[in-house]
């Protein structure tokens, strides 16, 4: 029956995580998976999340009834406002829909399933992009999954000229996937004037934007600033999709809490889109899980809790920035060959070090340092205790 089944290739991110867990070395360092850690190297349940969790669990009203197909309304409404802005014309004119998803991955997949049915089967992904994007669009049945230039390895920054030239050459209606902020894996985002340039070409060429937003609040520490790209496209009159994840900014990794928001031209269209998204949810997950959405909803809808959340977000973003500075300083002190400015120039959870695959394998074998083979480092895995060791490992590998 299963003669044709072969072993699937390991996931480039989760496989490194399981190898790290098996490693018994006392000095091992996990900078593979993008998950926040404290300065003690421990996962962090945000104090406001813990507080709200207790409120929910101890509430006499708690039940485990099904949510509607599009999820918890107080959560999806608040999610749309969080990304688009409370005063967005799309929100004020009620021409959007927001549907709960299985975190960011589920939101991208839901969007891909929808676009494949109702829009176009050509999608352009940035090169490089999050390791899962290609597979999501493949599994959704996209026939043309192409890439556009994004990162320039020479400058370790944005390849804006090539990016724009490529946009100009795309065929009408193509879907172009963008990371709203804190690009994964490079940590390189377009500046506001570059987003403006990109949006202008997208409009002229009638291209369709799909934003993946997994790090709102993590890039700059400001929720509004990190939503700038999406809001700018909305202001320019685009219809668009945006996938939101609450894994990182709420630390709700295992609760799989996310949302797909669609900005449309009219309220009637938004309602039609909503019903189609519900129909897809029904066959894939039936109805979304409630716990994470209840937590996020309470926080986003209560000004005091919201303030507490923002302060934790700033703390996480600040600690990551500090790690960038410390790593950079250590490498400079060691005189490590190469230019390391990009460590402090790049933003968000990741640094794209520029280390080769061979160097990444070497650093794993010799120093028990786990990073993806692309040279991506999750800065949240560093702390004041391991950053020196990590810098030393890089220094030695670079000199080998
Ligand atoms: C990552 O890129 O490490 C995270 O987004 C985790 C994941 O799902 O890949």
From TrEMBL:
GO molecular function, one term: L-aspartate:2-oxoglutarate aminotransferase activity
Keywords for this protein: Aminotransferase, Pyridoxal phosphate, Transferase
Cofactor: pyridoxal 5'-phosphate
Domain Aminotransferase class I/classII large: 27-394
GO biological process annotation, one example: aspartate biosynthetic process
Keyword Amino-acid biosynthesis: no
Family annotation (Gene3D superfamilies): Aspartate Aminotransferase, domain 1 (3.90.1150.10), Type I PLP-dependent aspartate aminotransferase-like (Major domain) (3.40.640.10)
Claim: Transferase is one of the keywords in the record: yes
Pfam families (UniProt xref): Aminotran_1_2
Gene Ontology terms: cellular component: cytosol
EC numbers for this chain: 2.6.1.1
EC primary class: transferase
Subunit structure, interactors included: Homodimer.
Matches recorded under NCBIfam families: PRK09257.1
UniProt family annotation: Belongs to the class-I pyridoxal-phosphate-dependent aminotransferase family.
Protein name: aspartate transaminase
Species: Rozella allomycis (strain CSF55)
């Amino acid at each position: 029956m299963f003669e044709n089944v072969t072993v699937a290739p390991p996931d480039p991110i989760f496989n490194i995580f399981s190898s790290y867990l098996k490693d018994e070395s006392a000095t091992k360092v996990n900078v593979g998976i993008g998950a926040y850690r404290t300065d003690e190297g421990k996962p962090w349940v945000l104090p406001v999340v813990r507080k709200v969790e207790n409120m929910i669990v101890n509430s006499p009203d708690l039940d485990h009834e099904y949510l509607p197909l599009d999820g918890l309304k107080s959560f999806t409404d608040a999610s749309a406002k969080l990304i688009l802005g409370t005063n967005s014309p799309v929100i004020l004119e009620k021409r959007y829909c927001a549907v709960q998803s299985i975190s960011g991955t589920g939101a991208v997949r839901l969007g891909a399933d929808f676009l494949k049915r109702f829009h176009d089967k050509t999608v352009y992904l940035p090169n490089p992009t999050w390791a899962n994007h290609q597979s999501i669009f493949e599994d959704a049945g996209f026939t043309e999954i192409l890439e556009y230039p994004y990162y320039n390895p020479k400058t370790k920054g944005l390849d804006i000229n090539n990016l724009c030239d490529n946009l100009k050459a795309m065929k009408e209606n193509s879907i172009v996937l963008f990371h709203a902020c804190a690009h994964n894996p490079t940590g390189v985002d377009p500046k506001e004037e570059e987003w403006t340039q990109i949006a202008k070409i997208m409009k002229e060429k009638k291209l369709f934007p799909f934003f993946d937003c997994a790090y709102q609040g993590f890039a700059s520490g400001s929720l509004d600033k990190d939503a700038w790209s999406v809001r700018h496209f909305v202001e320019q009159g685009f219809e668009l999709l945006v996938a939101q994840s609450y894994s990182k900014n709420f630390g709700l990794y295992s609760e799989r809490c996310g949302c797909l928001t669609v900005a449309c031209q009219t309220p009637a269209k938004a309602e039609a889109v909503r019903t189609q998204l519900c129909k897809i949810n029904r066959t894939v997950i039936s109805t979304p899980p409630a716990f994470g959405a209840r937590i996020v909803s309470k926080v986003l809808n209560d000004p005091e809790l919201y303030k507490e959340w923002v302060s934790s977000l700033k703390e996480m973003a600040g600690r990551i920035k500090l790690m960038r500075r410390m790593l950079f300083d250590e490498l400079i002190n060691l005189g490590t060959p190469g230019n390391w400015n990009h460590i402090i120039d790049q933003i968000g959870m990741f640094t794209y070090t520029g280390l080769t695959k061979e160097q990444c394998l070497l650093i794993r074998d010799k120093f028990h340092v786990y990073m993806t083979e692309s040279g991506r480092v999750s800065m949240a895995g560093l702390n004041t205790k391991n950053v020196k060791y990590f810098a030393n490992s890089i220094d030695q590998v670079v000199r080998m």
